[in-house]
Amino acid sequence: MTLAMVARRAGVSPQTVSNAINAPELLRPETLERVRQAIDVMGYRPHRAAQTLRTRSSRLIGYGVQSVEVDRSTPVMDRFLHALTQTAEAAGHRILLFAVPAGSRLLTPYQELVDDYSVDGFVLSDTTRGDRRQAWLEKHDIPFAAFGRMWSERQIGDWVDVDGTTGVERAVDHLAELGHRKIAFLGWPRGSGAGDDRAAGWKAAMSRHRLPVRGLRAESIDDVDAARTVALRLLDTGVSAIVAVSDTLALGCYRALRDRGLTPGDEVSVTGFDDSPAAAHVAPGLTSLTQPMDVVGAECVRLLLARIADPDREPEHILLEPELVIRESTAPPRSPM
């Protein structure tokens, strides 16, 4: 099926069919409708390479897939990728996935995709303090939007992020309202942007409720067994509740409690972050903070397409609030605190 065949069926010139695909605003509504009907009936699909030569747009958005880091869990990123792909396709673009290596070769695939595939821009995730990718893309005038902040004083580029501080504050508020007074925080090692953001929420809420924090903050890598070991030490301090920086660490708390013959929620309350599938299916159900990943994915695509259309626009930063999903893992303390 060729463009010329569509033109003959619609009774127009091949250039009119091309305008209907690439610049529909140039055509009268009745002409545009006639051409689109012919395209639908004949099942015509424009040749992507030819479109790229004409418009200098590949309609491709690059997204680098990294190994799972402490700031994100796999189920959460699956939801993000689905939303990203769905929104991009609705806007006439495709997501091009590629592997991102660690270390000195971090930027190599970005350069290769610009040179070899002429991608229109990139969506980033797993941003870190002083992220090299954001700085490199800005320096080379390559459009990008990020799921995650720059985590530095100089905020460059467009980004969408979830407000971990506010989310964890809500978890602490919930526990305080239940009557808990000794609430520990199990976080990631200091230096993680998202982890420090969530830890700030615990500290701020504890201060508002005039609750002690000394000796009640502990750290673990994002691993269930590692978290179990650290949580056992927190239990030795006599805490009645633990706010975990992720669902993975919260499940480590579950194991520690069971090692002591205790039940989450009944003896010690536990909260997580991410509302992963495990949160709803583990027994007892885990109280957790869910992130609006459908909105995050859609906003990343919107910001990127806006940047492509207007490279000089002011950077836009969007901070979304997570929602606390309350389940059986949080309950009033057994004895007055």
Automatic annotation (TrEMBL):
InterPro entries for the chain: Cro/C1-type_HTH (IPR001387), HTH_LacI (IPR000843), LacI/GalR-like_sensor (IPR046335), Lambda_DNA-bd_dom_sf (IPR010982), Peripla_BP_I (IPR028082)
Swiss-Prot/TrEMBL keywords: DNA-binding, Transcription, Transcription regulation
CDD domains per record: HTH_LacI, PBP1_AglR_RafR-like
Record-annotated HTH cro/C1-type domain positions: 1-45
Gene3D superfamilies: 3.40.50.2300, lambda repressor-like DNA-binding domains
Domain HTH lacI-type, chain residue ranges per copy: 1-55
GO MF assignments: DNA-binding transcription factor activity; transcription cis-regulatory region binding
SMART domains: HTH_LACI
Superkingdom of origin organism: Bacteria
One Pfam short name: LacI
Name under which the protein is recorded: LacI family transcription regulator
